[in-house]
Design goal:
The chain is mainly β. Helices cover 0% and strands 54% of the residues.
Length: 95
């Protein structure tokens, strides 16, 4: 039996993602609903081949199905100022 699809709202703002940590189950389809409250940001999750822009006042949706347990980084790849290098988060995939 498979888990039902999950969705996760992630909000981008200058120098941070909220929340910074998301948990999902291995094999579960998950859609990230990405929003920005201030400017264009990026959302990159290299382990899943994800790379997209997050535009203010729009929803950007990214869907993945993680098939292995581990912790995976995501980060902004659109420069947004002096704290940009710390704008990151973690996806935790559990069994």
């Amino acid at each position: 039996m498979h888990d039902p699809p999950a969705s996760s709202l992630i909000e981008a703002s200058k120098f941070e993602f909220t929340p910074e940590r998301e948990k999902v189950k291995r094999g579960q389809l998950v859609t990230f609903v990405l929003t920005s409250i201030d400017r264009i940001h990026g959302f990159k999750m290299p382990d899943f081949g994800v790379h997209t822009d997050i535009i203010p006042d729009q929803e950007t949706r990214v869907t993945i199905t993680p098939m292995r347990t581990d912790s995976f980084a995501f980060f902004c790849d659109v420069f947004c100022g002096g704290g940009h290098e710390d704008m990151s988060g973690t996806l935790v995939v559990e069994s």
